[in-house]
Each structure stands twice: as structure tokens, then as C-alpha cells.
Protein: NAD(P)-binding domain-containing protein
Amino acid sequence: MAATRSQAVPVTVIGAGPYGLATAAHLRARGVPHRVFGEPMDSWRSRMPAGMFLKSTPSASSISDPSGACSLDRFRAAEGRRSQGDLHPVPLDEFVRYGLWFQQQCVPDLERTVVRRIEARAGQFQVTLESGEDYISRSVVLATGLGPFAHIPPELADLAREGLASHPAEHADLGRFAGQRVAVVGAGQSALESAALLHEAGAVPTVLARTQELLFGTPPSSDLPAERPLSRRLVKPASPLGPGWSLRAFSGIPGSYRHLPAPAREHFLRTVLGPSGAWWLRDRVHGRVDVLTGRSVRSAVPAGGGARLTLADRDGGTAVLEADHVLSATGYRVDLDRMELLAPGLRGGLWRSGRAPHLSAGFESSVSGLYFTGLPAAATFGPVLRFVCGTGFAAGRLSRAVAARG
Ligand SMILES: Cc1cc2nc3c(=O)[nH]c(=O)nc-3n(C[C@H](O)[C@H](O)[C@H](O)COP(=O)(O)OP(=O)(O)OC[C@H]3O[C@@H](n4cnc5c(N)ncnc54)[C@H](O)[C@@H]3O)c2cc1C
Structure:
């Protein structure tokens, strides 16, 4: 729903990934005039490796629209396909098609333009677009995703500057490493799936993990949770984040998470859903990919056109590993200072929870009218905000709060 251009735009949504699209769909359903910007599903198209599957199950991979008419199952039905359950991971290319379909159905007014700058202007915001246009908006919702937060640890920074180390977000096609030795640092889904894809593309990956062993999920005993015996469902109830009572709590009550003391919120965010691979990755990694567990990278230097890593184990022992490239699958760390879209004056004035924005129950920051959703909101609402399954809670609450602001 486009707003009239001559007066202040009530709401601007920046980002067209799952969180931005869901926010815009909910605003539209409430009749709140807004402009929404971004290249739809850009992160999923250009910052994730071809051949990837989603770790989240199909039932936890729908982008929220208020009517439920644009769920993943509805998309599959529109393509003439049956819905599937937990035994069938969603391929990346299908999820991208789904997101584009969602955008056409629920967010037809999307403007495929980059927003260059947000500045505070007398209690409102000046929005500057790549096209050079600027205008005033009463509220701004930042749904700009993971992009600025890709984390490469300091010990790999020199290699990264030389082009000898990179983050998985830099590669939409791991096939470019065919024939090369690649050290993959990390033990989470991204590290393990990257290692499997590298191996399958003809590269020679070695996984380097600090943990003593690699962990993988347990295969579901049936395609649909409802088909599982009652005793199993009672011990480990299904939830969008995975089976178990604690995950059910974290996915079921994100609104209560913000009432936990700050140290508890930080602890859960770090530890809930620790590094592990999906159940369907085990056979693609075990016995196929070299794995060095219980080691961390002490130092890394360029050597002979590649990288020489000195590894340390827990007993103080060291070893050397040589690789043509290092893939630092070391995740994402929210840091407001990296959100250069926000003018420094605006950014500097925001209250923080650690390095993330401090948010109200309605996703509003300490600057009235400035909202954050997706990963930067996880410090307030918990781990569910890291995943697509959090779009319903986030977009519902945020759109209600924005509509109430008027
Ligand atoms: C490798 C990998 C695998 C993952 N697998 C899963 C999974 O299986 N299940 C799951 O639920 N989650 C998964 N995630 C997490 C997933 O990325 C998030 O759940 C989801 O993408 C967050 O949506 P978002 O809209 O906040 O961010 P994004 O999807 O990153 O979208 C942000 C959008 O904002 C746009 N944008 C940024 N800046 C601007 C600007 N200045 N102007 C205009 N547009 C802008 C970007 O182009 C992008 O399109 C995975 C993440 C990674 C990295």
C-alpha cells in the first residue's frame, strides 16, 4: 500500500527478506500506508550456497502473512505439489521461489531500490534512496537482515584482507573451490553444510572445530509430528525451533523473553541451539570430510600462495595445517555500529543491550518511531527471532505497535 508522496510517509520498511516482507504484509492488512524497499530474498539468492537445504523444517519455514494464505504449503499447492513434513528438508532454490511468490502475492508494492541513509529530522526521519530521492517518514522499520554482521575472528583477519579467508556469506557457489584444500572453521550448520558442498564440488575440505565432537540432530521418526507416539510427543514436544520443552518455550513465549535479566538473555542467546548439523548432513560429512575436533586457530599467516594455520588443542599441543583457502563459518554478531545505513548521530544515540538495540515490547528502539526486527531483535525476544518462524510474532506485534502510533 503506497503512501502519498507529497506528505510524510507514515512508515518505511527497509529490507525484503522474510522479516521485511512479513512486516509489510501485516501493515498492508492493517491498512497502514507505507513504502517498502529492497531486492526480494536477496540474502537467500546471493549470500547462501547453491545446493543448500534449509535446516528449519517445512512447517517452520513459512513467512507470516496475517491470513495464512501465503504459507509454504499454499505456495506448494499453487505450484501443484503436495506439502511435505520433517523428513523432507526444503531446498534453497524452492525457498527463494517461495519468497518471490510471497512478495508478489502479499507485498506487490515493493520498491526494488536500496535505501542509502536514514537521518533524524525533527522527530521524524529523512530517508535517502539510491536513486537520489529523499523524503520524510514518521516511522522506519529496519529489516535489513544479517548482511553487516558476518563475523570473521581477529586471528583470520589478515588472511581475509589478502583474500585467503572469507565468510560463507561471500559465496553463492562453493564450486569455485573445486580442486583446492579448504579449511572450514566452525561446527555449526553453515560449517558442516559448506564442508559437504565443498566435498561434493571436488574440493578437499577439512573441518576445524573447537568442540570435542561434531553434533548432528536426530532423524525424525515420522514425517509429521502428529504421527509420533504420544509418549514421545510428551517427552519431546515438537516446536518450530526443534523438539523439546525448552525449545518449545523459547519459540512459544518470545514476548516474555525480554523480562528475563540481561545476563540470562545473553546466556540463552549464546547457548540455545548451539553448534550442530541437521540430521540429514551426518552421512554427507562423516567418512567423507576430514575433521579436526578440539582445536582452535591460534594464528594464521599467508604461505606459499595459501594459508598456514597454527592450531592449538586443549592440552597446549600445537599442529600446523596448510590450506589454499580458509572458510570462516563463524556466524554473525549483531553490532549497531556496523549498521552504516543509520546516520552516525542517530546510531550513536540508541540505547543498547550489549551491541544490539534496546527494544520495547513493540520492537521500538529508544528513538521514537525507529523499529528493528529480525536478528537485531533476538537480544530482546530470544532465539526465535533468528529464524523465519519468528516472522509471525515479530510482524504481528510490530505492525500493531506502528499502527497504534499513528
Ligand atoms: C546459511 C544460512 C542458512 C540459514 N538457514 C535458515 C533456515 O533453514 N531456517 C531459518 O528459519 N533461518 C535460516 N537462516 C537464518 C535466516 O537468514 C533468517 O531467518 C532470515 O533470513 C532473516 O530474515 P531477514 O528478513 O531478517 O533478513 P534477510 O533475509 O537477510 O533479508 C534482509 C534484506 O534486506 C535487504 N537490505 C539490506 N539493506 C538494505 C538497504 N539499505 N536497502 C534496501 N534493502 C536492504 C537485503 O538486501 C535483504 O534482502 C539461515 C541463515 C544463513 C546465513
